[in-house]
């Protein structure tokens, strides 16, 4: 009985540890993924940021597979879907979770140097105002079609 309890506790500990891909300070980073995209085009990055500490901010991101990475926000204004850069980044309030997801905040991987193929991982370095930088593997997977008709502003 004791051995079974120890095995179950060890398994639960491993599963809990696997829930987060990375950590920067008090920020747990999980669910990092990207869609497939052709070389020369633009890619996208999504991730969940859970801030267990004081207020912070995602200020920038970079990856060796793109010319640059911008933080963007998608929204509907006047019945039209639009995408806006967020040059100041994204606030991460204390004790809150912020999800970069389709039709919301996201990372734009601009000027891809190579195609993003399903099954690959892409290293993306996230830079936080207080928590510093951490490189996170973004899984490339099919996640439905990219939103159509988006305009950049």
Q: How many β strands by DSSP?
A: 12
Q: Can you tell me the residue ranges where pLDDT is under 50 for at least 5 consecutive residues?
A: 1-20, 145-153
Percent range of helical residues: 10-25%
Beta-strand share of residues: over 45%
Q: What is the CATH superfamily? A: PCu(A)C copper chaperone
Protein structure class: mainly beta
| Order of helical and strand elements | HEEEEEEEEEEEE
Domain unit count:
1
Instruction: Please state the second-level CATH architecture.
Output: Sandwich
CATH topology: Immunoglobulin-like
> Describe the biggest sheet?
12 strands, mixed
Shape: globular
**Kindly, what is the distance between the CA atoms of the first and last residues, rounded to a whole number of angstroms?**
62 Å
Mean pLDDT: 84
Secondary structure tally, helices? 1
Name of the CATH first level: Mainly Beta
Radius of gyration: 17 Å
How would you describe the overall organization of this protein?
With 153 residues, the chain is mainly β. Strands 1, 2, 3, 4, 5, 6, 7, 8, 9, 10, 11 and 12 form a twelve-stranded mixed beta sheet that branches. It starts with a helix and ends with a strand. The chain has one helix at 2-18, and strands at 22-24, 27-34, 43-51, 56-62, 66-77, 80-85, 90-92, 97-100, 105-112, 121-128, 132-140, 151-152. The chain has one domain (22-147): PCu(A)C copper chaperone (Immunoglobulin-like, Sandwich).
List the helices and strands and how they pair.
Blueprint: H1 2-18, E1 22-24, E2 27-34, E3 43-51, E4 56-62, E5 66-77, E6 80-85, E7 90-92, E8 97-100, E9 105-112, E10 121-128, E11 132-140, E12 151-152
């Amino acid at each position: 009985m004791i051995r079974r309890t120890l095995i179950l506790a060890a398994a639960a500990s491993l599963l809990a540890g696997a829930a987060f891909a990375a950590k920067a300070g008090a920020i747990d980073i999980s669910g990092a993924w990207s869609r497939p995209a052709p070389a020369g085009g633009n890619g996208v990055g999504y991730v969940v940021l859970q801030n267990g500490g004081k207020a912070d901010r995602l200020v920038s991101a970079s990856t060796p597979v793109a010319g640059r990475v911008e933080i963007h926000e998608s929204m509907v204004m006047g019945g039209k879907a639009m995408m806006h850069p967020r040059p100041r980044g994204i606030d991460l309030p204390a004790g809150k979770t912020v999800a970069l997801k389709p039709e919301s905040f996201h990372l734009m991987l601009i000027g891809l140097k190579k195609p993003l193929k399903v099954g690959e991982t892409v290293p993306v370095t996230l830079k936080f105002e207080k928590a510093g930088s951490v490189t996170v593997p973004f899984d490339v997977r099919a996640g439905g079609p990219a939103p159509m008709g988006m305009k950049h502003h």
